[in-house]
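mind reviewing these tokens:
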Amino acid sequence: MKEYLITSLAETAELAEQLAEKIADKQVCILLKGDLGAGKTTFTKALGKALGVKKVINSPTFTILKSYKMKDQRMLYHIDAYRLEGITQDLGFEEVFDENAICVVEWPHFIQACLPKEFLSITITCLDDTKRKFQFECSDELNLA
């Protein structure tokens, strides 16, 4: 597990840019964990920008899933599963996870059963108004070296 202490929005964007360089040509599912207000959507916005998304990225809380075209014409999917707690029906996320795309999932524990086996988990902990701790952990199958 790798940990990063972030003290500003600029450092958040820098961390997202470093990640984007490693995953730009990969199919990857990123699981974003953290309390409300921790910075999950802020990090996703910075990651999308670094991957060449031109549209404004905002939280898909009410639409659940938003899709954006990256500079290589592949898709960046942004899922907010917060409102899916207790839902048992098939929502078709497996199709998104199987596509050659990058998927970012906020509140992944609410859709645990349909998540792919390969993933990058990022836990964001709010330390105070400006400080965040980012913990990165890859599944055994995912190689981001």
